[in-house]
Specification:
The chain is of the alpha/beta class and 243 residues long. The protein has helices spanning 9-26, 41-53, 80-92, 109-122, 159-165, 183-188, 202-210; strands at 2-6, 31-34, 62-65, 67-69, 99-100, 128-131, 153-156, 177-180, 191-196, 228-233. It is 33% helix and 17% strand. Helix 2 links the parallel strand 2 (31-34) and strand 3 (62-65). The chain starts with a strand and ends in a 10-residue tail after the last strand. Bound molecules: fructose -6-phosphate. Residues 35-39, 66-67, 80, 131-134, 138-140 line the site of fructose -6-phosphate.
Length: 243
């Protein structure tokens, strides 16, 4: 794992968008996995902008969403699906054959997990995974205490995830469970970028980068990824030991 520190969120997002462009130019049929949430928002916007400006062919890549709140639909403002629609699917005009998102309304969520795992396998694995980090160290909905050896699964949400997660919604929503790719998917991805910005992420970045590798702080698993990159701004990096 390595760390890349940028002056601010815009520059960090610019770097990430360029990585996405590079991937699709080098491998037009690449499989990309992206988190929802605030951290990758600008990177997605810049990516769509660059695709248009540079006339990049995005007709063959495939993307999978990292996770979803169980019980929420694509129509719910703040759901991951709703974000992906606005950030990638609509701006790029992606056809439904070009992405797969968990159906968190399904009455067979185990089957949803199996479908996701089968798609990732069939596509030859994830080429680039772009994730954020929660205030409890979660990645996706791999909550503190999660088994590191899981593929896609359904999990009870940690208290911090439920409290912090309210920021995404305009209306009252019941947040109890999440459906998510597992950390086996992260370790198997060819490249992983973990994005974080702002002072409030400094303590979790410190733990992820310098702390013990433990399932009680899932993002510490990044230390095990040879091609993992912590992509942060100066503020999020402020507690890291300077070399
Ligand atoms: C969202 C997700 C979460 C977020 C994390 C950070 O799809 O997977 O793990 O990445 O909670 O959220 P933000 O980026 O909003 O600070």
């Amino acid at each position: 794992m390595q760390t890349a520190i940028f002056s601010d969120y815009t520059i960090l997002s610019e770097y990430t968008a360029n990585e996405m462009i590079k991937l699709i130019e080098q491998n037009p049929t690449a499989l990309l996995c992206i988190a929802s949430g605030d951290s990758p928002k600008m990177a997605c916007e810049l990516f769509c902008q660059k695709v248009k400006e540079q006339n990049i062919d995005t007709s063959r890549f495939f993307f999978v969403g990292l996770d979803e709140w169980v019980g929420l639909s694509s129509e719910t403002f703040g759901s991951c699906h709703n974000d992906f629609q606005k950030r990638l699917i609509q701006p790029l005009g992606l056809s439904t054959s070009q992405y797969h998102l968990f159906n968190a309304l399904s009455d067979d969520l185990q089957n949803e997990c199996e479908i996701m795992d089968a798609i990732i396998k069939e596509k030859g694995g994830i080429d680039l995974m772009i994730v954020g980090i929660g205030m409890n160290g979660h990645i996706g909905f791999n909550e503190p205490g999660v088994d590191f050896n899981l593929l896609s699964h359904v999990i009870n949400l940690d208290e911090t995830t439920v409290t912090v997660g309210k920021k995404y919604f305009r209306q009252e929503v019941k947040l109890e469970k999440g459906i998510t790719l597992g950390l086996v998917h992260l370790l198997n991805s060819k490249k992983v970028l973990l994005l974080a910005n702002g002072e409030r992420k400094a303590a979790v970045i410190k733990k992820a980068v310098d702390g013990e590798i433990t399932n009680l702080f899932p993002a510490s698993i990044m230390q095990r990824h040879e091609n993992g990159l912590i992509v942060i701004d100066n503020k999020a990096a402020s507690l890291l030991t300077k070399s």
